[in-house]
Structures are given as structure tokens and as C-alpha cells.
Amino acid sequence: MKKLLTALLFAPLMALASGAAVHLDKAPDVSGDNAALQNGAKLFVNYCLNCHGASFMRYNRLTGIGLTEQQIKDSLLFTADKVGEPMRVAIRPDEAKQWFGATPPDLTLIARARASEAGPGADWLYTYLRSFYRDDKRPTGWNNVVFENVGMPHILWELQGQQVLNHETHKLELAVPGKLSAAEYDKQIADLVGFLVYIGEPVSGLRKQLGIAVLLFLGVLFVVAYALKREYWKDVH
């Protein structure tokens, strides 16, 4: 019992240490690029929304990245009837658990949830989605360097191609090319990750703008207050 309690006590520390050992690549910042975010939304709907939902995000919030409601209806509205509905998952949770061994998580807050001492959540996602490799020992035929023994298959393998893990160098090597070059695939993943970051906090851009405006206002207020203070106390010795 004592050994069990000790193991449970130090399990979080061991998990953190093992996670920090994985090198995370820096995710490109596409937060101000609406074209990139729109491409990320397209990738999410076409590849991710089959298994993963974004149930805290409504379709009409995509107007924040420059899309009109008509464009959303025509190109992205596949799992709902109205643009005011959440981005629900297409697959049934019980079927997903049977196929993959666990229900695929909702991705609305995944970028924030994956943030750690190893780096921002965007960096984790960017590295993870580029680190799948062929593994015949896994039920899906895929494994991942960042998330070992992951239950998720590599849904973007046609774009990236098929990688294998060189067990001597512990590096990934491209065995079968995909439809895109490495640089093109990285750009697609950057757009997708940028969209996942956006849905975690759609008002992030507005929040930052308001923060700058408040700081500027406080700066002006400080100058006025200081001038008023000098004027009030100029005759006091």
C-alpha cells in the first residue's frame, strides 16, 4: 500500500518530466491572418469534425475571421442546420469509444489545455500533428512521437505522406511522399493550429486591443493627474 501511495504521489511529476523531454517546434503565429484562419477552419471541418467536436464554439463566431454567414452555410455547415448552432461532432460518442478505445475529446479548448512548462499549447499541437509515423503494432497502424501509443490515426497522412521512425537516430523519416511538400504541409498545420487557438478564445484579438487602449488612457490620465497635482501644490511650501 505504501508503494502504491508513493507511486500515485509522484505520478504527476513523472508525467510532467516525460512530457518536457519532447522537443516542441515553435508554431507560426497566424492570429492576425484571416485567410490562414479560414483555411484552418476548412481543414478542421473536413478532417477533424468527423470525430472531434468544438461544442463551445458556434458557427456564427466564424464571422470574426472574415467569413459571412452565407459563406459559412455554403462551405462549413455540415453538422448543423443553422449558423447559430455549436460545432458538434459528426460521430456518435459510443461508436467512437468502441473504434478508438476512448471518446475523442472536444477541441474547443485543446490549445489552452495543452499548454505546459514545455511550451504553449499551439507548439504542442503543431509538433504533434507533424509527428505521426507508421507503427504496425498499433491498432490504427499509427503512432506519434509526441503522444506515444496515441489512439488517434493520422487523418492527414494523404497530405503529409507516411513517416517511419528510425530507431537508431530516433528521428522521423519520410518513407512515402504525400500530396504536399514538407513546407506546404507545415503551412497547412500552422493554419489548422491557428484556428484551434482562435476557437479557444475568439475575442483574444479584441481583448488585446482593449488592453492597449486602457494602457494608453491610463498614460494620458497620469500626465493630467500629475499636472493637476503640480498646479494644486505649487503655492504650498
Automatic annotation (TrEMBL):
Heme c binds at C48, C51, H52. Residues 1-20 form the signal peptide. Its cofactor is heme c. GO terms for molecular function: electron transfer activity; heme binding; metal ion binding. The keyword Transmembrane helix applies. One of its GO terms (cellular component) is membrane. Binds 1 heme c group covalently per subunit. Gene3D superfamilies: Cytochrome c-like domain, Cytochrome c1, transmembrane anchor, C-terminal. It is found in: Membrane. InterPro entries: Cyt_c-like_dom, Cyt_c-like_dom_sf, Cyt_c1. The chain crosses the membrane at residues 210-228. Keywords: Heme, Iron, Membrane, Metal-binding, Signal, Transmembrane, Transmembrane helix. Pfam families: Cytochrom_C1. Its main location: membrane. It comes from the Bacteria. Residues 35-200 form the Cytochrome c domain. PANTHER family: CYTOCHROME C1, CYTOCHROME C1, HEME PROTEIN, MITOCHONDRIAL. This is Cytochrome c1. It comes from Azospira oryzae (strain ATCC BAA-33 / DSM 13638 / PS) (Dechlorosoma suillum). The lineage of its organism: Bacteria, Pseudomonadati, Pseudomonadota, Betaproteobacteria, Rhodocyclales.
